[in-house]
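cron nightly-structures :: item 1 of 1
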Amino acid sequence: MIGGPAYHLPMVERVLLAEPRGFCAGVEMAIKALTWMVRVFEPPVYCYHEIVHNRWVVQAFEKAGVVFVDDVADVPEGAPVMLSAHGSAPEVIEGAAARAAVVIDAVCPLVTKVHHEVRRMADRGFEILYVGHEGHDEAVGTVAVAPEAITLVEPEEGLGEFQAEDGARVALVAQTTLGLFEWQSVLDQARERFPDLWTPRKADLCYATTNRQAAVQELARRCDLVLVVGSETSSNTRALVRVASESGADARRIDGAGDIEDGWLRGVDTVGVTAGASAPDHLVQEVIDRLAPRSGVELVAVTSEDEYFPLPPQLRAFVSTLQRLVEASVTARALGRPGRLEGDRGWSATEALASLHS
């Protein structure tokens, strides 16, 4: 339901809303996993790095008693800790296991796939080109898997002067949240320089990232302005802004409705709205409410998504044990009946976040 104009902004005629947008399967899994941790353990619960790159989500968990740290040495001995969805370096995983009573790794399975590729190609003696953004949590964790074999390639800079010791033994892998245009330019350059280049049979780029970029391209063709909801720290959100701009639209990243400026909307009839893969959908609805389009909202769907990633195996094993020991509280189930753990596929990250303060 579209609310009335709560703000004095220039009126727009209509909003085109991208589908898919917002939470991907990896983010859904990570948010629900950390929600379980908050419910099972007395606060504080520790999390290595932001669970996902979204300011609103991080603040919601902080209010619920989660402490985010950038060094596992800051986790008190015996405390529960979760590792973020972006993937962690091997030494971080080992350090967490040495300090924490319970360690749950909420790494996205698509990031795990890249880690396996890096480990396998390094073991085979390949020089690995990793296309990613220096300093991004996912890139830091992936490079740490085989630092002696990896060269980080910034998409905007390309291969530069890189020369391989053996041109027949070069592999190319990618940060999952890159834009397709970022990956493709480096891929083309690497194939030209190294004809025997190894690349994964299935591309490393996240399906959700690719789908959201296809949707924002469609918005850009039909809109005067595209608003992308998501945090500055979110790589896939920034990629959506770049894709929209390169497709011809005026594109702006916003954390929420409060970031919209009057000047952006003057002379604008149609506004496209989408969200990065870690942005909650209620922020999108607040943006629509603030825009208050005279002719309403039109959904622009380019594909559908039904991917589901199960909760981390360590968490499932831990909670299953509790379910067998306890017959009360949120973790319990009636004997002989399925509990919330078994019904995880029908429980969304949005519902999980709402339950934190219920």
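cron nightly-structures :: done
The radius of gyration is 22 Å.
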